Amino acid sequence: MQVFEDNSLAIGNTPLVKLKRVTGGNVYAKIESRNPSFSVKCRIGANMIWDAEKRGV
């Protein structure tokens, strides 16, 4: 189990689950509910903030 010092560091580390019983092929699903805000949008917002911080904005 990963332990993060800051909740924002958990963004983007959503696990993949192989859906074996759904199809005969290799199908993987991301569990977005494991993100801190339960949404893919938190990754986009976090990257915008981290990019601005790197540029000194």
Description:
The protein has 57 residues and is α+β, with helices and mostly antiparallel strands. The protein has one domain (7-55). It has 1 helix and 2 strands, in the order ββα. The protein has a two-stranded antiparallel ribbon with strand order 1-2. The N and C termini lie far apart (34 Å).
Keywords summarizing the entry:
alpha+beta; 57 residues; two-stranded antiparallel sheet
The total count of strands amounts to: 2
Main sheet specs: 2 strands, antiparallel
Radius of gyration (CA) equals 15 Å
Low-pLDDT residue spans: none
Question: How would you write the strand order of the largest sheet?
Answer: 1-2
Beta-strand percentage range: 5-15%
Helix content: 25-40%
Q: What distance separates the N and C termini?
A: 34 Å
Number of domains: 1
What is the mean predicted local confidence, pLDDT?
A: 77
DSSP summary: helix tally: 1
User: What characteristic shape results from the CA principal axes?
Assistant: elongated
- Summarize the helix and strand pattern as letters: EEH
- Structural class by sheet pairing and helices: alpha+beta
Q: What is the oligomer described by this structure? A: single chain
List the helices and strands and how they pair.
Layout lengths: L15 E3 L9 E3 L10 H15 L2
Antiparallel strand pairs: 1-2
Quick recap:
The chain is an alpha+beta fold.
